[in-house]
Amino acid sequence: MALADIFTRNEGSASTRATVARRYGEVPTIQGEGMVALQAWVDEIAALTQPERIHWVDGSRAENDALLREMVDEGKLIKLNPEWRPGSYLARSHPSDVARTEARTFIASEREEDAGPTNNWIAPDEIRATITPLFEGSMRGRTMYVVPFSMGPVGGPLSHIGVQVTDSAYAVTSIGIMTRVGTEVLREIAGGAHWVKTVHSVGAPLAPGETDVPWPCNDEKYIVHFPDTLEVWSYGSGYGGNAILAKKCFALRIASVIGRNEGWLAEHMLLIRVIDPAGRAYHLAAAFPSACGKTNLAMLRPTIPGWRVETLGDDIAWLRPGEDGRLWAINPEAGFFGVAPGTGASTNVTAVETLWGNTIFTNVALRPDGDVWWEGLTDEPPAELIDWEGKPWTPASGRPAAHPNSRFTVSAAQCPQIADDWEAPQGVPLDAILFGGRRATNMPLVVEATDWTHGVFMGSNVSSERTAAAEGTVGELRRDPFAMLPFCGYNMADYFGHWLKIGQKLRFDRAPRVFQVNWFRKGSDGRFLWPGFGENSRVIDWIIRRIEGEVPAIDSPIGRLPRTEDLDLEGIEVSQDDLAELFAVDREPWLREADLTEEFYRTFDGRIPAPLWAELAALRYRLQRG
Ligand code: OXD
Ligand code: MN
Questions:
Q1: Looking at residue 51, which CATH number applies to its domain?
Q2: pLDDT of amino acid 26
């Protein structure tokens, strides 16, 4: 659309006219009905937020380089030494803006019961009345970027489009890594494709002549989702999921609502292809709560000879029943936004190799030679560092050098074991779904669900010890059904029901089999009982042999357990006592878990589907029967 046309169309609004007059950069020339609506929306947001200028992001390399250069000049990014880490940068956030702020995250559905008891519900009118004045003039003195992005390959049958307006160049470069951005997406919009509106402001307008700070943000934060109009409005934070709205806000919270409406699932899952020594390929999706090792499993290097894993995704999967009765999955993202601490040569060598360059690090430590470091990257810390807050650090400092939720943002294409077809628009058919958490007690290393409904029951009961990915006390046990507690955009009881319905669309012999895994069980002496990491391939080997019907399993009150002789333990030391503890099903604590499940289900005011109550009754019966 020509600038003159926009002018004419907006003649009525003085403030919009002023904004348009100040517009710089390429206004896209792409024609099409869809562009009119997009342009009108951009004008509306600009009139509200009153930016200094508007920049339509085209997703080009030159544009990205210019943005990075600008941020370095402004002191917002530190360019790392290209000798060690080419094309890479370090950002340091404000110390108050370091994680997703779940307490400030809202679902503004028309009806409270549609958000359910696990979400912070707020009435749409009320929250609009609260946030609109905050957004008024919130981009003054700043550039407003318009970022058209696609989740999933552009134009793919399972893909969806969004547009984020943001006043954070850091967010723009991150979205550029995490999604497919640019003119191709605009062409889809122009052609009439539906798109989701996402608005982001760090909430730090600049007065004329005021110099900017390295990490602008606001003490007041709101991350608001409108599931009825499919919109996201985020204010006050520049960090991760609060600012890269394509990720948790769109690809999980809003997409879960779209999935409910259209008959598919948006899940907090990694996606891998496992290839056995005979060359047979299997596809697995696994849901673990934040910072519980999804990225490690997504990049697994099996320790059992002859096995291979190819990475397809590490955080989000969209699952859709196919006409063939199988469940098909894509990773809608294009990059990894991974937790740095704990990522090292002994835990995830593939991630370390992925991060060779072209990476944006946030809140990790800086080495004197201009490279980065974080706890767990190497066994021995360097003798001196600059910590994530920019302060000198030595191993004697008595505090972590990198923030526990420090991150790397890197393109998936850089992963040395990414599957060749990771961008296949139709996705891959799933053979197994895994649920897991970080559980020191009770939960065995692996247990198989007896059928889909039992699997949904298992998913609804995922609990995990709290990690640093969100604000809160680390280590506390929290219930995190399907690892979706902070990410489900609607009532979780309806979500469990939706999972049951999806099961009905699958052919019984083609539906993925469901398993629960726990790499983190500890013995009575407080030691981890299982070595984890690459050795988890031994559990996957058993899962696949179950899928192939090659090994029997032992029925237990909580599901099907392996016979220990069917686990391939060659080459590792796990004592018989440890194995017994790893698979112990203790009735008393399990009956207490069942009580907690009942307590949890009761919070949904009668909305939990009957088959899940039946599963709970059956579990109690099996536990009590002895
Ligand atoms: C993430 C999270 O960033 O789950 O992936 O917090
Ligand atoms: Mn996640």
A1: 3.40.449.10
A2: 64
Mutate which of 248, 296, 407 for ligand 1? The one with the most ligand atoms within 8 Å of its CB, which is 248
Domain count, the chain: 3
Q: Answer whether 337 contacts ligand 1 (Cβ < 6 A).
A: yes
Helix 33-49 vs helix 183-190: angle between axes, to the nearest 10 degrees?
110
Question: Do residues 498 and 481 lie in contact, with contact meaning Cβ atoms separated by under 8 Å?
Answer: no
Looking at the fold, whether 368 and 508 belong to one and the same domain comes out as no
Degrees to nearest 5, angle at CA 613 with 607 and 614: 140
Q: Which residues in the chain show pLDDT less than 50? A: 1-24
CA dihedral for 330, 148, 137, 110, sign (positive or negative): negative
Annotation says 292 is catalytic:
yes
| pLDDT at residue 291 in the model | 79
Say what the pLDDT of residue 474 is.
61
Residue whose pair of structure tokens reads 């536990």 in the numeric block:
623
Phi, psi of 109 (to 5 degrees): -85, 155
Q: Which two tokens stand for residue 232?
A: 């996201």
Contacts of 37 (CB under 8 A, 6+ apart): none
User: Which residue among 217, 292, 415, 488 is the active-site one?
Assistant: 292
Closest C-alpha to ligand 1, atom 1: 290
Q: What is the pLDDT of residue 30?
A: 87
Pocket test for ligand 1, best of 237, 249, 297, 339 (most atoms within 8 A of CB): 339
Residue nearest to atom 2 of ligand 1 (CA): 290
Q: What is the pLDDT of residue 465?
A: 82
Radius of gyration in angstroms for the set of CA atoms belonging to the chain, rounded to a whole number: 25
Ligand 1 touching residue 338 (CB < 6 A): no
Q: Select from 360, 395, 414 the last residue of a domain.
A: 414
Question: What is the value of pTM for the model shown?
Answer: 0.94
Distance CA 581, CA 443 (A): 10
Domain of residue 339, CATH code: 2.170.8.10
Range of the domain at 367: 335-414
CATH of the domain at 541: 3.90.228.20
Q: Are residues 200 and 168 in the same domain?
A: yes
Please report, for residues 49, 66, 165, 408, 442, the alpha-carbon distance to residue 588 in angstroms, rounded to integers and kept in the order given. 57, 61, 53, 42, 10
Domain boundary among 263, 282, 311: 263
Does ligand 1 lie within 6 Å of residue 240's CB atom? Answer: yes
